[in-house]
Amino acid sequence: MRRLRLCTLLLALLPVLAAPRPALAVEPSEMLKDAALETRARALSKELRCMVCQNQSIDDSEAPLAHDLRVLVRERLQAGDSDAQVVDFLVARYGEFVLLNPRLSWRTAVLWGLPPAVLLLGMLALIVVVRRRSMTPAAEMANLTAAEEARLSDLLQREN
Q1: Which residues of 45-67 are buried (b: 16+ CB within 10 A; e: fewer)?
Q2: Res. 92 pLDDT band, cuts 50 70 90
């Protein structure tokens, strides 16, 4: 009986233990005392890619490099840099890859333009297919001989 209760308790706690929890990557020692600067730092950190994880922002990543980048962002903000200056500094140092949302430039035009282009081509192909299917019966009717047309009209009259 006691074993059954223990198993039931473990099964009840399993969803709680297995549920994903938000990572608290930003350490208290990193945080700035100025709330406005800290808010700007957190907003910037969410836009910058962790170069180790590559699919997380530095705000979410626990990698040592992400920690260093968060500290660097805060140092630049404390030095008086604007948000754009901080981002430009990091892009100059690490390249465009450091941005989670790449800027629109001639290098990224394909990245930004390809999805709408594929969508438009798909819609165009769909329109062409629908028009061809709707035109098919009329085209077949036009190719009937006089005897076939007479037979068809005779069959249609019998049905009605």
Answers
A1: bebbbbbeeeebbbbbbeeeebb
A2: very high
- Structural domain boundaries of the chain? 2-98, 109-159
Degrees, nearest 5: CA angle 82-86-89 = 135
CB atoms closer than 10 angstroms to residue 101: 7
Q: How far is CA 2 from CA 15, 17, 33, 53, 133, in A?
A: 21, 22, 52, 45, 70
- The structure tokens listed for 36 are 């406005």
Query: 102 CB contacts (<8 Å, ≥6 apart)?
Result: 96, 108, 111
> Which among 35, 43, 78, 83 has a CA at the least distance from the CA of 59?
43
- pLDDT given at position 25: 65
Q: What is d(CA 3, CA 149) in angstroms, rounded to the nearest whole number? A: 83
pTM of the model: 0.55
The CATH class, in words, for 2-98 is: mainly alpha
